[in-house]
Task: structure prediction
Amino acid sequence: MSKIDLATELEAAVVAVRDAASVCQSVQNDLVNAATLEKKDRSPVTVADFASQALVCSSLSGNSKIDAIVGEEDAADLREAGAEETRDKVVEHVRGVRGAGVSATQALDWIDLGGVDPDDSTERYWTLDPIDGTKGFLRGQQYAIALGLIEHGRVVLGVLGCPNLPGPDGQLGCLVSAIRGQGAEIRPLNGSGRDGIGAIRVSDILTTAEARFCESVESGHSDQGQSAQIAAALGITEEPVRVDSQAKYAIVAQGQAQIYLRLPTSKQYREKIWDHAAGMIVVEEAGGTVSDIRGHPLDFGHGRTLDNNAGVIATNGPLHDAVLKAVANFVDVG
Ligand code: AMP
Ligand code: MG
Result:
């Protein structure tokens, strides 16, 4: 695709992510409360996940030239008997953004647009995580709507909507984006078009002892014991920045931390493409480096998972080799 086409696709992706973020925020206001938190009730995230995917898919199907969307969800469960209550809530929230005229069938069909399974013949597709960081969403903390564009196994464009991450204007809610070869940008999530847009750049710190690192809140998603050992070996004294979702990539891309460690907690787990496509390109285009724990590039040419990779290391660039060496001392990189 030409540069001009990618600029058009970027603005289509921004509109889609803004719509999805607004539905996530309305679900949060309506359904997440002290009682759901107390009961560890995940039903609000289920509603927001489906509604978010419906909005991204409907928006892209109208504004983008690319028709394949590889999403985390499909609507099969929502079509089952017994799912009426969830389905009604999903449809109600989709109508809140798209208007009262949207039928239930239409909303479910939009969700299913994201059910594509990429294979070797799918040359160009979007990959979507409708709510990345579901635990953060439930806690009222960080989560992201993550949309990446993959061409011939390479990420060429990414958008991350982060409703609870402050933007450069200090307002809550930012949207970071990147096109391959054209740098990374940030704008307010709740704005319109390119209003308030600015370039972002990773930190230029050159010594690991001055660095801050981020990792998952969830110890099941990244080995926090190993990261503490690695941080100590690198002379890092600051506490880790623990946040859910690809907000971690947005934080590194803006220079607020220099390192993101995602250390495998099991040999079997394979990272999902929608958990990394948008975040990776944003950090790379902000001047940083992203690899797996062995230093290999993330390889998006194998369908829904990063089959040839283990874990993820993202840095500001100059610190990458030192971090990889320290990781190899504490982690079995296979
Ligand atoms: P985070 O918010 O960074 O902790 O990552 C959230 C993502 O972790 C979810 O979207 C899941 O797809 C993914 N995930 C689930 N299980 C694992 C695991 N065992 N290791 C790494 N990531 C996982
Ligand atoms: Mg996710």
In short: Residues 132-133, 216, 218, 220-221, 244-245, 265-266, 269, 272, 275 surround adenosine monophosphate (ligand 1) (CB under 6 Å).
